[in-house]
What we know:
Largest sheet: none
Mean pLDDT: 89
Low-confidence stretches: none
Amino acid sequence: MECYDPAEAPNSSSWLAMSTEEKLLLVIGYFQQHNDVDFIGDAINVHSSIYVLIENQLAENTQMIPETLAALVQLNMSREAAIGAIGRIALEDMKGGIGFTSEQYNQKFQDLIFSQIQAG
């Protein structure tokens, strides 16, 4: 894989075959070239790491992640924005240090989809 674009799903087997460092470098490269936001300090690394995490979960077909992404995209959210929204839930889990149960994740994903329906 030569470049990353969050608008397009990477080939799952190619994505999973790469090291975390390779994935991170591709995602950072995308955000450095295509983002209007000026990242401060390590923010681009954190932001890109979340995208790597979610792309890994998509490639591995982790429960609720592909379905949530598909639902958000169907509701006219860009794939990039949908990955970011799902990533915020994962980040919330990491910050809490406790970990969400499957039921809590399911509810948070359902709430995310419902909020997008209301916004639309």
